Amino acid sequence: MADLRYDPINDLWVAVAEVRTERPNEYRPSAEVVPLERCPFCRGHETETPDPIAESTWDAATNVLQPVSDGNWAVRVIPNRFPAFDPHLGPVEPIAALDSDKPGIIVHPFRHARSLHSRQELVIESPRHVESYSQLNETERLASFFTYRQRLQHLRQNRQLKYVLLFKNCRPNAGASLAHIHSQLFGLDFVPSTVAARQRRLGRARATPSQWLLKQIADFELTQETRFVTQGQRWSMFCPYASRFGFQTWIVPRQNWGPLWEQDDAAIVELSRLVQTWTQAVEETIDRPAYNILFHNPLLRPTSLPGHCYIELFVRIGTMAGFEWGSNCWINTHSPESAANRLREKFKECDW
Ligand SMILES: [Zn+2]
Predict the structure, then answer these.
(1) Fewer CB near the last or first residue (10 Å), C or N of the chain?
(2) Residue 128: which CATH number?
(3) How many domains does the chain have?
(4) CB-based neighbours (< 5 A) of ligand 1, an ion
(5) Cα 262 to middle of ligand 1, angstroms
(6) Number of Cβ atoms within 10 Å of the Cβ of 78
């Protein structure tokens, strides 16, 4: 069972989850990851994973996500076999700390808790042994993004969850332990401190939409040539001014700033095209780049801080080194201006 341990010096939680050492290639350096002889995510190997939560395909005739039970799936959702947060009930150990803001009262240095209700799911975006969004066909791409929305809609119904993060790790240097394309959903019954702080900054502290921080940034970038990439009907894309990583890109809504699970069909379709085209652009520039994609959404609870939906994409060029670990100050050798310039060229080919 995973322990959640609080680090009061750095204001962060650590999940101590030894079960994850059983993952394939756990003890190999990422450059030496060995492909499995038999991939459990490929079609025909379904019995090698836990029972599916959902199997679906995209019905082009009706433009809807269609559940299937004949094995002819385009997208498959399964529980994570190696969860960082064990969802099974166990003895509850109450938080041991005396947490207090009052001066003079010592905060217990070893605060810990159990995460009892967290949920972790994998979304396998193709039955074929491919590794990147760039390799998905239209059926797989649409089925994947509508599955994301469907699973987020489902998980938010769980009253014990407070936050859900949908993310993708592509290739070993981005954290993928299996080559076969997949994304992950972490539904948590606690709010990580970084998420809480970001949500406070994004939240509706100011009354009118025109004063929301993220909207102000987006509005400014869209008036500039330098970091703007493209604009569709529902989303805008630009490289943030203080990019920490190569090709760091934000996709932000144009109108509906609500969470991904409330975005309409047209927004989901357009987002899937933007994300896939971004992966094609970086793969035309860098040979098999490792990349991460984070689908940021508001907290599920409390709902008094709605926050905003936006999608963050970046390439793992270089590594987080001692200076970054020690200072949380970043050195980025690839400017957002040159990244945006390259991405713009690719998106010019697209008809939005
Ligand atoms: Zn495979």
Answers:
(1) C
(2) 3.30.428.10
(3) 1
(4) 39, 41-42, 129, 180
(5) 31
(6) 20
Tokens of 256: 């509906």
**Residues in contact with 35: Cβ distance below 8 Å, sequence separation at least 6, in sequence order:** 179
Domain range spanning residue 268? 40-80+116-347
Is 8 inside a domain boundary?
Answer: no
Q: Give residue 291's identity as a one-letter amino acid code.
A: Y
Distance 149 CA to ligand 1 centre (A): 24
Calculate how far, in angstroms, residue 17's C-alpha sits from the geometric centre of ligand 1: 25
153 assigned to some structural domain? yes
Q: What is the pLDDT of residues 184-232, one digit of tens each?
A: 999 998 888 888 888 878 765 555 777 788 888 999 999 988 999 999 9
Is the pTM of the predicted complex or chain greater than 0.90? no
| Better pLDDT: 42 or 116 | 42
Distance 294 CA to ligand 1 centre (A): 23
- Ligand 1 mean position, distance from CA 295 (Å): 24
Per-residue pLDDT reduced to its tens digit, 304-329: 665 689 999 999 987 788 988 899 89
Residue 7 placed within a domain: no
Tokens describing residue 118? 């967290």
Residue with tokens 């991460």: 292
